[in-house]
Design goal:
Helix content of chain A: 40-55%
Strand order of the largest sheet of chain B: 5-4-3-2-1-9-8-7-6
Number of strands of chain A: 14
Shape of chain A: globular
CATH class of chain B: Alpha Beta
Number of helices of chain B: 12
Oligomer: heterodimer
Strand content of chain B: 5-15%
Radius of gyration of chain B: 17 Å
Distance between the termini of chain B: 24 Å
Strand content of chain A: 15-25%
Number of helices of chain A: 15
Distance between the termini of chain A: 48 Å
Strand order of the largest sheet of chain A: 3-4-14-9-10-13
Largest interface: A-B, 36 and 40 residues
CATH topology of chain B: TIM Barrel
Structural class of chain A: alpha/beta
Largest sheet of chain A: 6 strands, mixed
Helix content of chain B: 40-55%
Chain lengths: 399, 259
């Protein structure tokens, strides 16, 4: 059953997690774990993080009753957790703010990060500018093309953006390069990992920095409705926004938790990123979790219209939550996500990130068949400005 | 005593240092790879390290990444590479070490892999992304099949870690000469004397230095601090250009420098 004391020693969520990294980095990971655990006992650190979240990021973010969308669907009441309203436009900054303050305490002078959609890269470049770090962002070459607006934002913020030309030239390859950089510059460099994957302590630490989403949501839905929601829905790539909103509800077994993976061109097409739905346990980027891979253990090239979900791995805590059945993991295809993107745009005047639109797909499916007294919360993890151009171009869409 | 340890100790007792050469299995294709392995053995490699190609080699620089890609594109697979090793071992008596990331071995099945590797003549394994803390399961199987699970230590490794790593080490200790990925370097800042004497404090197993060895001169510089030198990218670079004769010559020259 659910164990809230996770992860156990060595970073294990039952059989998932761990720390599969070259020896060169192991002392740095241990140093990071020690430093992080010290900050957890330090009220001054928590106060600093909260100060920046409230005065810089713009927290708490709104929990918005999407009445027109709910009425249009004619079922459950839908609430949107508006992480898109955070400074830089996504939930990513909750984590980068916390980790950058930790890096500062550790005396590091240089931040590196990987990015897919560019949202984590922008959030890292932003806190680097704010706190005076040198900053290098690795981004798959394919992603630098489809998200070039974010590349420009990072450069304006003073970061160096390095396009990664190896492998599938997406998020997985950007992460390989970031790890290689860290191995080579471990003395002065802090690797600011953006999701709940990677070696221990990242899955724990990133989760902890993101749970502010769920804590606020829990309090806000009670203020709005006097009770807990019936379901909470979030998209899952690596899984940081999902774990952030799910975690404070894990013990509330009456609340359904639903993660939505990227179904790409369909789960049987071979062109998707639905790691939990179609993968099997393996080791990628430092942790043991579900992985999309071939029979030989070679990591698969994956696909999604959403660069932030286009990743063949998933955080180890999600693997655990899947196995114990606490979270249901489903998927939405590229074209379903596009439809949901348009639906939210014209019913509520909100452009969601194409990643978040995946969560919207499942919420729409669920809400339509639920009674009007039911409540569904969607984590609207980011805003869609970055996607406008690629959506207009996608298969000749006319908007 | 393990065959690997014995081989390196014998060399040292004869007043020379060992040469361990690396090649990616199946690079550029299975047939050429087998010839490369044979020519390395004939050119004087004391131990051959055969890499299993992996799609995401995070501890490797561009040269070995490219070798992995070539091998995978030309159909390299774990079973084929083990078969190649078995074939080569019919012809030459050289100890073989497998170098692999953890996932391909995990997917093969840890025990099944150890069993087949032993049957094909493999003597040891190096797994760059399997640190001490995660290594016990594989080591237990490896021990059962007389395979040495050879650990890596780095300039960043703390004394506490060195002690733990050395206490469960088999074969030899792989000392990474720099904090970085594999690849040839012009200059190495690490104090190799310091690194090697730190490791010596905890083990009497042979010590091999790798990462950044470009040729005979660098190998000669490193020799005083170790029992063997590991050369990878410099050879793989020549393999990439299909300069097999030059690759053989470089192997010979480095071996000569270590005598």
């Amino acid at each position: 059953m659910l164990n809230s004391g996770m992860p156990a020693k060595g970073g294990y969520f039952d059989k998932y997690g761990g720390r599969f990294m070259p020896e060169t980095l192991m002392p740095a990971l241990q140093e990071l774990e020690t430093a992080y655990l010290e900050t957890q006992k330090d009220k001054g650190f928590t106060r600093d993080v909260t100060w920046y979240l409230n005065n810089y990021v713009g927290r708490p973010s709104l929990l918005y009753p999407a009445q027109r969308l709910s009425k249009y669907l004619g079922g459950a009441q839908i609430y949107l957790k508006r992480e898109d309203l955070n400074h830089t436009g996504s939930h990513k900054i909750n984590n980068t703010m916390g980790q950058a303050l930790l890096a500062q305490r550790m005396g590091k002078t240089r931040l590196i990060a990987e990015t897919g959609a560019g949202q984590h890269g922008v959030a890292t470049a932003t806190v680097a500018a704010l706190l005076g770090f040198e900053c290098v962002i690795y981004m798959g070459e394919e992603d630098t093309v489809r998200q070039h607006l974010n590349v420009s934002r990072m450069k304006l913020l003073g970061a160096e953006v390095i396009p990664v030309k190896s492998g599938s030239r997406t998020l997985k390859d950007a992460m390989n390069e970031a790890i290689r950089d860290w191995v080579s510059n471990v003395d002065n460099t802090y690797y600011l990992l953006g999701s709940v994957g990677g070696p221990h302590p990242y899955p724990m630490m990133v989760r902890d920095f993101q749970t502010v989403i769920g804590r606020e949501t829990r309090q806000q839905i009670i203020e709005h409705t006097g009770r807990l929601p019936d379901a909470v829905v979030a998209c899952v790539g690596g899984g940081s926004n999902a774990i952030g909103i799910f975690y404070p509800f894990l013990q509330d077994t009456e609340v359904q938790l639903v993660g939505v993976e990227a179904g790409g061109e369909g789960l049987d097409s071979g062109r998707h990123s639905a790691t939990i739905n179609k993968g099997r346990p393996g080791v990628l980027h430092g942790s043991l979790s579900y992985v999309l891979q071939d029979i030989e253990g070679q990591i698969s090239e994956v696909h999604s219209i959403a660069p932030g979900l286009d990743y063949p791995g998933v955080g180890p805590e999600h693997a655990y939550l899947k196995d114990i059945g606490r979270v249901r993991y489903t998927s939405a295809t590229d074209s379903e996500a596009l439809e949901a993107f348009k639906l939210l745009s014209f019913t509520e005047g909100i452009l969601p990130a194409i990643e978040s639109a995946h969560a919207l797909v499942e919420a729409v499916r669920m809400a339509s068949s639920m009674l009007a007294d039911k409540i569904v919360v969607i984590n609207l993890s980011g805003r869609g400005d970055k996607d406008v151009e690629s959506i207009v171009q996608h298969k000749g869409e006319h908007i | 005593m393990s065959i690997i340890t014995e081989r390196l100790r014998n060399l040292v007792s004869c007043g020379e240092k060992g040469l361990i050469t690396y090649m990616t299995g199946g690079d550029p294709d299975m047939k050429s790879s087998q010839e490369i392995m044979l020519s390395m053995a004939k050119a004087g490699a004391d131990i051959i390290e055969v890499g299993l190609p992996f799609s995401d080699p995070v501890a490797d620089g561009p040269v070995i990444q490219a070798a992995s890609n070539r091998a995978l594109a030309n159909g390299a697979a774990v079973g084929k590479i083990l078969q190649m090793i078995a074939d080569v071992c019919q012809e030459v008596a050289v100890p073989i070490v497998i170098m692999s990331y953890y996932n391909p071995i995990l997917q093969f099945g840890l025990q099944e892999f150890c069993a087949q590797a032993q049957a094909c003549g493999v003597n040891g394994m190096i797994i760059p992304d399997l640190p001490y803390e995660e290594s016990e399961r594989l080591r237990n199987y490896a021990d059962g099949y007389q395979l040495d699970l050879i650990p890596m230590v780095a300039p960043t490794t703390t004394p506490e870690r060195l002690e733990a790593i050395c206490s469960s080490a088999r074969g030899f200790i792989y000392c990474v000469s720099v904090a970085g990925v594999t690849g040839v370097r012009d200059h190495i800042q690490t104090d190799l004397d310091l690194l090697s004497s730190a490791v010596r404090r905890y083990t009497d197993l042979p010590l091999a230095i790798g990462f950044g060895v470009s040729g005979p001169d660098r190998a000669r510089d490193m020799a005083p601090f170790c029992d063997a030198v590991i050369v990878g990218s410099a050879l793989v670079e020549l393999i990439a250009e299909q300069k097999y004769k030059e690759m053989e010559k470089l192997t010979e020259d480095i071996k000569t420098a270590l005598r």
